[in-house]
């Protein structure tokens, strides 16, 4: 089933805002068996909306619009949609109640601008938007579905997940789809693909495999199009087991979450705590971990030891070790991990020291060389990586690698996590 | 002059990659007087490319394509472009030389896949791509300009900046455009707009003002369409001076850079150093600062003091202060700033302590309450902010506010920075 997305807003065209909504929608629709074949970003004028919408409905049966709504600028989009469907704007009690219930306790009274949000094209069905004041509008005409949503990501995501995707599935009988995502790291896609050729050949014919690579890691997504849940789960289990035989060392997760979420869940479940000592990652590991709500339950804190003096004075790295081996060395990164674990009295620690670049490389230790260590009741483990030449990517990969190294140790302790 | 952008690639449609290229292109084209009126993302099939391109050239005179090139998948895009322009693929020495010079020293020998990259439609002009192997192709037919670029952001950006925008300017005589960007913070857009009404009325008629808001800050972009540089600079200067009279306290920059770049430049220029003590920002300030290449010249490091014990033990915050005033308090955040400045022996320090949310708020200190302190030879300064309910936004705004607070102090010392 083909779908098109239209995102409305001048802010997208002048580059003030990056359109992340489309990617999120594309991903979630794709997972549920819908194919997004085109994404169009347009100005918020009646002409632009009418033209893009007319073209889209001539190509596909489902068109999803985001943006162009909100108290100060919704008139154009709603008027345009009303005209497009030969309808007119009318007061809608559902939209009004939704807005009142959202505004309750947030603002004193509602103003005229808000009130105008309760007016929608007569021919549409208003879908609940519990996290905002703008209406979500569902149009069903001439066998085409057009849905207009606010551009605020949190509002769009909730509407998509709770209402729009389930309704589309029911309407278009896309069939039951199940996914199993297995995440691997530290193996190039081409090498992995070669190693998994025979494995993929054992897939049942209702199941497909997708490689979703990003720097340093690859998500393997198994998709089963079947109504037989039991059989699918059995096959998922068999294939996962076989995959461990082939590339077990590279697997770090059997679910589709970010590394920081997985690590946080694992620490929380075992009621243990973490501290970090970061040189080349410069606070990024701490940042990724503390982005997760509730991380204070397992994250004690960290030391960003950018200057060597900080490594010595705060983390207790020996001056002689720094002189003999250099800051980017196994000895130093291991002392950093032990040092921060002792200082912050945590159960586990992650430490990084490397050359993020673009300057600072040598023949022996070129840009991209990173030592990563983890410490815990298992002792200290460390490894050296060569990530490449791009500073931002080196920082991100070093951060993720440190978290994966610890995650792997935690998994050994409780393999069911 | 209207422009359309077409981004090619299934990875964009299934949401594996967020299309950041379009926003970058939109921003830079907009600054140079071109209006992007539509952005279209399509599958990498001949049909999709031909359809989108035909539609775009029917609407505008300039169409910029990114993606669909590269050693493994460029054939479709190049074949399709050749067919579109009634041309054929031929070996191009310029493209070949470009590729060879890029690959030199990187890989041993070139393979067949690479070699195919030297074949381009006969009717196009190949533009230099010094940072990749894929050709940049410039088509000029029937008064329409079509440019095909690789989707790799670094390659696209260099081609756009060095070649494509200057060529478009020359070709379409867009006229000379100058910009002056002034950045303000901590003032709502509606309030600012009201305060600046009379100021905007004094603009010469060749100059326009754009509000470019993002959470917590607004970029005011003055655009002058004139060939008279001297006059424009004089007017920029007068208007900037007047703006200081109106909202001087809120201005933190007279150039269009990120806060971390501005702060880094200011520290570097004064040969001073910085340390950070982060509670609610959880390492994000350190991360933002160390994302900048060369930050080791002025950044000593930091302490992420997530747990109160870390505030006490590492930063020397007094236990009694924590008990009496709570972690989110003026007293604690000031002690954190002084503590990290002393510990890491830096010239300046930034500290944060707040409730990022979504949990942990109280009636007295609701979610979004953040104390920020800066310390230096000026003493210690602190302020309390209420940012709102969204965790990620609170972290980002607290980080930026801390950096701006220090930047403002540094500017007082050397007002010409």
List the helices and strands and how they pair.
Two copies of one chain form a homodimer.
Chain A: E1 2-8, H1 10-13, H2 21-31, E2 35-42, H3 46-59, E3 62-66, H4 74-84, E4 89-91, H5 93-103, H6 112-116, E5 119-121, E6 125-127, E7 136-141, E8 144-149, H7 153-172, E9 177-185, H8 189-195, H9 197-201, E10 207-214, E11 217-225, H10 229-247, E12 251-253, H11 259-269, E13 274-278, H12 284-290, E14 299-305, H13 308-313, H14 319-325, H15 330-344, E15 348-354, E16 369-376, E17 379-386, H16 391-413
Parallel strand pairs in A: 1-2, 1-3, 3-8, 13-14, 13-15
Antiparallel strand pairs in A: 4-5, 6-7, 7-8, 9-11, 9-12, 10-11, 15-16, 16-17
Helix pairs in contact in A: 2-7, 3-4, 11-16
Protein name (chains A, B): CinA-like protein
Organism (chains A, B): Carboxylicivirga sediminis
Family (chains A, B): Belongs to the CinA family.
Oligomer kind: homodimer
The tally of strands of chain A reads 17
- The number of domains of chain A: 3
Which sequence of strands runs across the widest sheet of chain A?
2-1-3-8-7-6
């Amino acid at each position: 089933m083909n779908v098109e997305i239209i995102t409305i807003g001048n802010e997208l065209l002048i580059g003030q805002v990056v359109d992340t909504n489309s990617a999120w929608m594309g991903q979630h629709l794709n997972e549920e068996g819908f194919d997004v074949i085109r994404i169009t970003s347009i100005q918020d004028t009646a002409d632009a909306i009418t033209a893009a919408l007319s073209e889209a409905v001539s190509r596909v049966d489902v068109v999803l619009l985001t943006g162009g709504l909100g108290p100060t600028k919704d008139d154009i989009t709603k008027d345009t949609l009303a005209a497009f469907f030969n309808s007119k704007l009318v007061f809608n009690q559902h939209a009004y109640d939704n807005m009142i219930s959202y505004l309750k306790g947030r603002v004193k009274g509602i103003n005229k601008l808000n009130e105008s949000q309760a007016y929608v094209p007569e021919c549409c069905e208003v879908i609940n938007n519990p996290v905002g004041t703008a209406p979500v509008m569902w149009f069903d005409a001439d066998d085409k579905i057009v849905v207009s949503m606010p551009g605020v990501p949190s509002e769009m995501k909730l509407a998509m997940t709770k209402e729009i995707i389930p309704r589309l599935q029911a309407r278009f009988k896309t069939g039951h789809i199940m996914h199993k995502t297995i995440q691997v790291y530290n193996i190039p896609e081409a090498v992995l693909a070669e190693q998994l050729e025979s494995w993929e050949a054992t897939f049942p014919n209702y199941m497909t495999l997708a490689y979703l690579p990003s720097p340093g890691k690859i998500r393997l997504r198994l998709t089963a199009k079947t109504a037989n849940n039991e059989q699918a789960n059995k096959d998922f289990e068999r294939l996962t087991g076989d995959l461990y035989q082939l590339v077990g060392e590279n697997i770090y997760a059997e679910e589709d979450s970010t590394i920081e979420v997985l690590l946080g869940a694992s620490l929380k479940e075992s009621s243990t705590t973490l501290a970090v000592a970061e040189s080349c990652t410069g606070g990024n590991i701490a940042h990724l971990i503390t982005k997760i709500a509730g991380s204070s339950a397992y994250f004690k804190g960290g030391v960003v030891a950018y200057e060597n003096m900080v490594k010595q004075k705060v983390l207790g790295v020996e001056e002689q070790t720094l002189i003999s081996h250099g800051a980017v060395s196994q000895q130093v990164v291991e002392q950093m991990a032990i040092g921060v674990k002792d200082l912050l009295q945590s159960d586990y620690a992650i430490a990084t020291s490397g050359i993020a670049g673009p300057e600072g490389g040598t023949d022996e230790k070129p840009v991209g060389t990173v030592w990563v260590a983890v410490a815990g009741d298992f002792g200290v483990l460390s490894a050296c990586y060569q990530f490449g030449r791009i500073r931002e990517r080196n920082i991100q990969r070093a951060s993720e690698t440190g978290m994966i190294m610890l995650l792997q140790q935690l998994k050994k302790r409780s393999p069911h996590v």
